[in-house]
Design goal:
repressor; MerR-type_HTH_dom; 3-stranded antiparallel beta sheet; mainly alpha; about 100 residues; 4 helices; Multidrug-efflux Transporter Regulator, Chain: A, Domain 2; DNA-binding transcription factor activity; DNA-bd_dom_put_sf
Length: about 100
């Protein structure tokens, strides 16, 4: 079951209130590929608490003068490192349990 933090149920107006970002800024960060809201059949965007945390990180980095393309590169690098770490962990677990059989 998905954690409540990952459920995409929050509308853009609420995200605006929680983050202080304008709806235009939020949509721009979506266009940049920094966040990925779910769309309803009518096209309404829905965000998760994880998306809100990401938007706050983006806003903090922008205040520090970091450009959006640098933020995206940093996020992609973190994801790659996380994927590699997950793959290594899976390999270690599989190796450990396969040896014991």
């Amino acid at each position: 079951m998905d954690s409540y933090k990952h459920k995409k149920v929050i509308t853009i107006g609420i995200v605006n209130e929680l983050t202080g970002l304008s709806e235009r800024q939020i949509r721009y960060y979506e266009e940049c590929g920094l966040i990925f809201p779910k769309r309803s059949k009518l096209g309404t965007r829905h965000y998760s608490f994880t998306d809100i945390e990401t938007l706050i990180q983006i806003a903090d980095k922008r205040e520090e003068g970091v450009q959006t393309n640098e933020i995206k590169r940093d996020f992609n690098n973190k994801k790659k490192r996380s994927d590699i770490r997950d793959e290594m962990l899976r390999g270690q677990i599989n190796s450990h349990f396969n040896r014991r059989r």
